[in-house]
Design a protein that fits this description.
Elements: H1 6-14, E1 23-26, H2 34-48, E2 53-57, E3 59-63, E4 69-74, H3 81-94, E5 96-97, E6 104-111, E7 114-121, E8 130-133, E9 136-142, E10 147-149, H4 152-181, E11 194-201, E12 233-235, E13 238-243, E14 251-256, E15 261-266, E16 276-278, H5 279-299, E17 304-313, E18 319-321, E19 336-337, E20 341-345, H6 352-368
Parallel strand pairs: 1-2, 16-18
Antiparallel strand pairs: 2-7, 3-4, 5-8, 6-7, 8-9, 9-10, 11-15, 11-17, 12-13, 13-14, 14-15, 17-19, 17-20
Helix pairs in contact: 5-6
Length: 385
């Protein structure tokens, strides 16, 4: 979501905008007391556990006789933005379960008493988020214009929605990898081991998820398939980019219409037992591809609550080649579904070193499949420890 401007805030005030399920005003800062912390966490988690929304601090409001709260003036607050972010991001991390790290906090300058603070709170797909204060805990939900405690039915329903979404994604991933492994993906003639990457915004598995794949400039901004590839083109599923040396597909990148990326490339040097997977090359290609996907998703507004999954197929009997002779055990199964990586926000992840650290837990499990504790490559791409 784009950031609010001063002109847009002035329009909210001029129109006496009402608080709603996705909008709340605060005239002053939250207090530093226990009650102030609880109120802040209540307001933010209620948005995250509902449809998301904007919490704007520095706008005075008034309540009508029928209970409607409307904006009256934008005065701002005299506070350091950096100190505010550090303080309240820590509260969202330390006093929420699971931690709420996807809130975008920014300031808008130009008001009489200082800046207006905006908290852009997305709907969370990994909730519901619980507020923990001392020995007590609470779940909140945003109603028409305020935060309310969830009752037992609402809490149960929120967990069921989250569990259902997670299971749907796990099932979809397993089905896709299974199809790819037997030549039912874009690569029909499977002759070697395959690396599969899925970058999945959780929002993609909701009913409202849809990308206009014909939008101007969209195809030109897509990450290419591994090792380059042809200019992306439309297909039934969305947009496809392929690598076809000697007229045979060896890699592809598919953007589905719901915003999910699927990248597949050959990684084995021979088919069947005794073959190898070029480990360092696989890691570096995966990092580049994931970075491209995250950059694109951020550009189109799908920058929060993303699952990244890495898989290897055609693995049985293979080892990971690391440029030296070693005594690694061959992999004992055909498909490795490596642990999923959950990313609440892509901000701060637009760098290869950061993406390598992000993917390290999944890479390490692949090495453990051949008896090595962790990846032998450092956090700097291409350097060995």
């Amino acid at each position: 979501m784009s950031k609010l401007t001063k002109a847009e805030i002035d329009l909210l005030v001029a129109g006496n905008a009402d608080e709603s399920k996705t909008l709340e005003f605060k005239s002053a800062m939250y207090s530093d007391s226990k009650d102030g912390t609880k109120e802040f966490l209540k307001d933010v988690t209620a948005f995250a556990n509902s449809q998301g929304g904007l919490l704007i601090i520095g706008i005075s409001e008034q309540r009508s006789e029928d209970g409607i709260v409307s904006a009256t003036s934008a005065d701002g607050v005299d506070v350091s933005l950096d100190q505010f972010k550090q303080k309240y991001e820590n509260k969202l991390r330390d006093n929420c379960d699971p931690p709420l790290n996807s809130v975008n906090i920014y300031g808008v300058e130009g008001f009489p008493h200082g800046r207006v603070i905006v908290l852009d709170i997305p709907r969370s797909w990994i909730g519901p988020h619980r507020v923990r204060i001392s020995e007590q805990s609470y779940f909140y939900l945003r109603t028409s214009s305020k935060a309310e405690p969830m009752d037992s039915r609402e809490i149960r329903q929120a967990f069921q929605v989250a569990d259902s979404l997670t299971e749907r994604i796990k099932r979809w991933r397993a089905e896709r990898v299974g199809l790819i492994s037997v030549g039912q993906g874009q690569i029909r003639n499977v002759t070697t081991g395959m690396a599969v990457v899925h970058v999945i915004p959780l929002e993609s598995f909701t009913e409202s998820a849809f990308i206009d794949v014909t939008a101007s400039g969209l195809r030109g901004a897509l990450p290419f398939a591994f090792e380059g590839g042809a200019l992306p083109k439309l297909n039934f599923d969305g947009i496809l980019s392929t690598v076809m040396p000697d007229r045979r597909k060896t890699s592809y990148s598919q953007l589905f219409r719901n915003g999910v990326f699927e990248g597949v490339t050959e990684v084995g040097n021979t088919n069947g037992p005794g073959g190898t997977i070029a480990a360092e090359h696989w890691e570096n290609q995966t990092i580049d591809y994931v970075l491209g996907c995250l950059t694109f998703l951020s550009r189109i507004g799908l920058s929060r609550n993303i699952i990244i999954s890495l898989s290897l197929t055609g693995c049985h009997g293979r080892t990971l080649y690391m440029g030296r002779k070693s005594n690694e055990e061959p992999i004992d199964r055909d498909i490795l579904l490596l642990p999923e990586i959950e990313l609440q926000d892509t901000s701060g992840c637009m760098d290869k070193k950061v993406v390598r650290q992000l993917l390290a837990p999944a890479f390490d499990v692949a090495y453990q499949a051949v008896g090595i504790p962790c990846s032998p490559y450092s956090k700097t791409s291409g350097e060995k420890q």
